[in-house]
Amino acid sequence: MAKQILNQGRRWYVLHTYSGYEDNVEKNLKQRIESMDMEDKIYNILIPTEKKIKIKNGKRKVVEERIFPGYVMVEMVVTDESWYVVRNTPNVTGFIGTGTIPTPISEKEIKALQKRMGVEEPKFKIDVTVGSPVTIIDGPFKNMEGKITNIDEAKGKVKVSVSMFGRETPVELDFLQIKKI
């Protein structure tokens, strides 16, 4: 007995996958779309990622991280056939929706997500002000405490006054090397 799925036209849907298998699902789904002639029903696959700045060995690195680990977006027209093709792709655990009926996400949500993904240069979230007490969490001054004396938001750098050998010494650090106390 086949379920009758409501055709809502071309919309974006969210698939739940095993975490870490998002790229694998994208690859498998693309192959299935091609081999099962579904190009007219399944259009785009999107794994939402964003660039983040991390510090590794004292160096700044831009890494791409998944915004929603374990989820893949698919732009498609849901019919019994297209639902079956997507649902039975290896490592797909289901659609987001009620029961077996997928719920489309709004155009506004998908636009906001695409905008977030399209940001080329990651921004710093500097939540300290001059005078804030901080702990240094990376680099040669790790575990020392000090006070912020200067903030260069454009470069993501801060000057921290640290007490060394009985005197205040200014140290320039990357914003990611400090933590607000």
Structure characterization notes:
It contains three helices and 13 strands. It is an alpha+beta fold and 181 residues long. The protein has two domains: 10-117, 2-Layer Sandwich (Alpha-Beta Plaits), CATH 3.30.70.940; 132-180, SH3 type barrels. The strands form four sheets. Strands 12-11-10-9-13 form a five-stranded antiparallel sheet, with no helix packed on it. Strands 2-5-1-6 form a four-stranded antiparallel sheet, covered by helices on one side. A two-stranded antiparallel ribbon has the order 3-4. Residues 9-117 form the NusG-like N-terminal domain. InterPro entries: KOW, NGN, NGN-like_dom, NGN_dom_sf, NusG-like, Rib_uL2_dom2, Transcrpt_antiterm_NusG, Transcrpt_antiterm_NusG_bac_CS. Participates in transcription elongation, termination and antitermination. Belongs to the NusG family.
- Specify the biggest β-sheet: 5 strands, antiparallel
Radius of gyration: 24 Å
Question: Average pLDDT, to the nearest integer?
Answer: 87
User: What would the CATH topology of the largest domain be?
Assistant: Alpha-Beta Plaits
For CATH, the homologous superfamily of the largest domain is named as NusG, N-terminal domain
| Oligomeric status | single chain
Count of folded domains: 2
Helix content: 10-25%
Measured by DSSP, the beta-strand proportion falls in 35-45%
Helices and strands: which structural class?
Answer: alpha+beta
What is the number of strand segments?
Answer: 13
Poorly predicted ranges (pLDDT <50, ≥5 residues)?
none
